[in-house]
Amino acid sequence: MSLLKEKLAGQIPGLRNEIKELVTAHGETQISTVNVAQAYGGMRGVKAMICDTSVVEPDKGLIIRGIPILEIKDKLPEEIFWLLLTGELPSAGELADLQAEFRAAGNVPDYVWHVLEAMPKGSHPMTMLDTAILVLQHDSKFAARYHEMAKADYWEAALEDAIAILGTIPVIAAGMYRLRYDKGPRIAPNPELDWAANYVHMLGLEETPDCYDMMRLYLTLHTDHEGGNVSANTCHTVGSALSDPYYSVSAGLNGLAGPLHGLANQECLGFVIKLHEQFGGVPTEEALTKACWDLLNGGQVIPGYGHAVLRVPDPRFVAFHGFGKEHCADDDIYRIVDLLFQVAPKVLQEHGKAKNPWPNVDAGSGALLYHYGLQEFPYYTVLFSVSRAMGMLSQLVINRALGTSITRPKSVSTPWIKAQVGAGATG
């Protein structure tokens, strides 16, 4: 038994009992109400699901298992995955054991590469990644053992699949990057490197301590963002039908591929590069202020500014901004990101329509990727996906351990809404 599995096996009975007691004692207690605007507005703000891995507080940002993200930004992604699942950071021995599990699971079958190589040359990188994960479903331990497992044991097979997916996803993501962008043959994993550094190695980026640290930071900051975002919620819904982790994560990644979710970082970087081209370098504060006003007066937004939940600067942006200041302060693209941070909130506050004038994570992440040589914009969401798979899978394993019910909200019709508010039904 792996140390992670052993740790969870010791925790799960207590968690099951805790939830059983909560539901028995307080099952009828109301925790949320729903108004018409929320029903038509994507259920935003409706408290209707449980996610114990992380929460996003409007005035604090991302908190993972009770720890603000800035306090653990220097931890390895593997450590965050352990934390997400168990509520504790791993010891040195536990971390080494988990890393060994990832390495052992990192062999990508030839049939996956054959499928990727057969896809149209111009395929979107997210299409390639989602397809590869789905093709790997052939090897799902959860699917193979479903009919012979007791319900209480579902989490064990889900965990095995989760480890397998996380062991292979950076290998797949790096290999398809080299295939899609004609970077040469695939690069074999280096067993001496940690998960993020090995990803840098397999991508073929410059193998420097700075680049390793940038990727570790990127993958750590994007691991999880509570349960209601499109990718996590989609993975949860599909998994609640007892679809195995491969089906579930592939579905979640399809949601992440959407322009309103995972594509934001490339759009923000594109905006910064456009500014660089427009001004022939780094604009003055006065010129950038005018450019921001021109956008707003033209009915557009300032990319990277504003967040559906946060009412403070995204702490993940703060982490990226600080890293850039230390490692690439002279880079023109970073300098524009930095200047926007000084200018955009003031403009948005004066404009008065933005609920949150502060930067989100996407305002800064793309600039660092660009600086370290990853300049193929459509690939950026794949990096996000490699990281966010950790959050989706940790939530999925926990839900299988707790026997979470299938997701099945009640839908109503527009005539029903009209009748409830006294507007009259239509034919």
Describe this structure in words.
The chain is mostly helical and 427 residues long. It is 59% helix and 2% strand. It has helices spanning 3-26, 36-40, 77-86, 92-104, 110-118, 125-135, 141-145, 154-180, 195-203, 209-221, 230-240, 245-256, 264-279, 285-297, 315-327, 332-351, 362-371, 380-402, 414-421, and strands at residues 54-57, 61-64, 67-68. The chain has a 3-stranded antiparallel β-sheet. Helix 6 (125-135) packs antiparallel against helix 8, helix 9 (195-203) crosses helix 10 and helix 13 (264-279) packs across helix 17 (362-371). It starts with a helix and ends in a 6-residue tail after the last helix. The mean pLDDT is 95.
Provide tags for this entry:
427 residues; mainly alpha; three-stranded antiparallel β-sheet; 19 helices; 3 strands; globular
